[in-house]
UniProtKB/TrEMBL annotation:
<dbReference type="InterPro" id="IPR023214">
    <property type="entry name" value="HAD_sf"/>
</dbReference>
<dbReference type="InterPro" id="IPR036412">
    <property type="entry name" value="HAD-like_sf"/>
</dbReference>
<dbReference type="Pfam" id="PF00702">
    <property type="entry name" value="Hydrolase"/>
</dbReference>
<dbReference type="InterPro" id="IPR023198">
    <property type="entry name" value="PGP-like_dom2"/>
</dbReference>
<dbReference type="GO" id="GO:0016791">
    <property type="term" value="F:phosphatase activity"/>
</dbReference>
<protein>
    <submittedName>
        <fullName>HAD family phosphatase</fullName>
    </submittedName>
</protein>
Amino acid sequence: MLPFRAAIFDMDGTLTQSTHIWDGVTDRYIEQLGHPLPEHYYQRIQGRTYEQAMAWLIALYGLDKTPGQMVFEQYQMIRDRYCAVPLKPGVLPFLQYLKGEGVPCAVATLADSRVAAEVLGAHGLLPYFAAVVSAVELDDKPKSDPAVFLEAAARLQTPAGDCAVFEDSLLAVETAKGAGFRTAAIADDKNAAQWDRLCTLADWALHDYRELIPAAE
């Protein structure tokens, strides 16, 4: 029997092997708009959501665009590659297992809901989720705030303590843990330096989702 009644998944780096997909995209996009990427840009936007970072660039350069428009235009630049990235090991069998066990699932992502729906749909995953919650819907709160996890739990009608949050980000695992969720850390190339800390903090640390499927299954 699973030690949780509902499951909440991040998307990039957790369901899909896509943490690298945005690398260099903003650089190219801003150059196409006729501006250089500001010096130390990535250090300056650390802790912000993608839309918050775009809002900063809009203010800096006086761009006649909305943050959401800028994010979606950059998504169009990588759309085909994004929808073709592989799933993390064992994702589909695990989602099938959860569905068979009657465990409701949701996605809690910083990505725009249109982007999330298209990427998940391209991989055939949408039928496994009762809800897809984007931080954009919640005043663009970053994952240092548990709002996106709490909203996902509310849509699943399950208390935080009965939900497991699956995440590749150390910050997100810390946030979810602090809000009373059980947590599973998902290994990714971009969290290798933090993996020991994630293993200590999370309830489970997984390289393959099938590690949580009982052998008898």
